[in-house]
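Incident review: delayed structure delivery

Summary: a single-chain prediction request sat in the queue longer than the usual turnaround. Root cause was a stuck worker, restarted by the on-call engineer. No data loss occurred. The affected request and its eventual output are reproduced below so the record is complete for anyone auditing the incident later.

Affected input:
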Amino acid sequence: MIKETIQLNVNGHVYSLKKGRDYEEADTLSKVLRERLGLTGVRVSCEQGACGACTVLINGKSALSCMMLVTEADGCDILTIEGLDGSDPVVDAFVNTYGPGEGTAMQCGFCTPGFVMETHSLLNENPNPTDAEITEALSGHICRCGCYHGIHKAVEKAADHICKCKEEANE
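Output delivered after worker restart:
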């Protein structure tokens, strides 16, 4: 049975959404996040779960929001790129990865939110991933500009930063 009202906790804010007014039964999470809540950092590209652009964190794990009905997210904690603050180490690593030997982690930027959110999911589970683990985690994402080397370097930088912060906290 479909509920008449669902609640989404998005970026720390609770939204009560009414069926027929705020969403329809067949609406995807990505559609509601973008069109109802105005969170356009959630990109929609393929709408088939093949590119990773729509990745958000649901209860701390990455999810393709274009492949999930909004009703499936009822009661969940959802984090989008807009929910990250300016001092976020993953965002900082993506912004500051460029130059000789690194490539760039961002060119047009369309895919960046999905890669950032996937990186968060990876580093939440494994703060010190191997090269193979990074490659595997990012394998469901497409960068049409071909910035894969730079993106990989950005993930390594973010992991290094997070590990150093943990070490300093334990000293």
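Verification: The chain has five helices and five strands.
Action items: add queue-age alerting; document worker restart procedure.
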